[in-house]
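Human: Note token order:
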Amino acid sequence: MARQASRDGWPLVVAVGGDGTVNEVVNGLMSAGALVTLGVLNAGRANDCRRNFGLPSRFPLALERLLAGREVPIDVGLAEWPDGRHRHFLMSLGAGFDAATAERAERARGSGKAPYVRAILSTLRVHRPSPATILVDGRCHWSGAITQAVVSNGPYYGQGMKIAPTADPYDGVLDLIVIGDLGRMELLRWLPTVYRGRHLANPKITTARGATIDIEAQTPLPLHVDGEPCGKTPVRVSVLPSALRLRV
């Protein structure tokens, strides 16, 4: 629907829903290749898009901004697989623990954070770090066991977790956060620190920034884009600077 609206010449296409809905609309707009502006009325379970782009939480104000706001160019992430598949994202791509959690959360019932918390606890019970190799702009950044790797275009994901405090959707690069070999109890203690962005003090966590990031693993890791499950590694992630306009 978003792709067709763009091809029909509509200047503004508005996604009404959660982060998954926004991701679907973004992929429609990007595949159309036309010059069109994205608007967002967040009405979902996570709403990290609102946090990352400073959009209003109150519906009347959000609607007012759509009608009278300004347009800004934003970066878009692109995930590509060896078989030719690809997927765009606005906020993040995750590999490992968070993607396994996203799969469980997608099947869960309920509203708010409760389904996501239950999914985290269920994933913890079967969690095992996996060997992986991660390249940033062609250079090896990590080789060893990881709990998860997150490629971020904005600071927030996972219903308010400040996973990448310095990520900026306007700077033309992506932020990489690699969570190393954390055991179950260590991971359980670590999770609450992410909401305030204090997790980077952990010596088992490393960060990097770049335009392209390649993730490979001996055992393929599950992936998500903007919280939506989307296959497994290997995957190449790259940034498309200022590829979309957003009404803010």
Q: What stands out?
A: The chain has a mean pLDDT of 92.
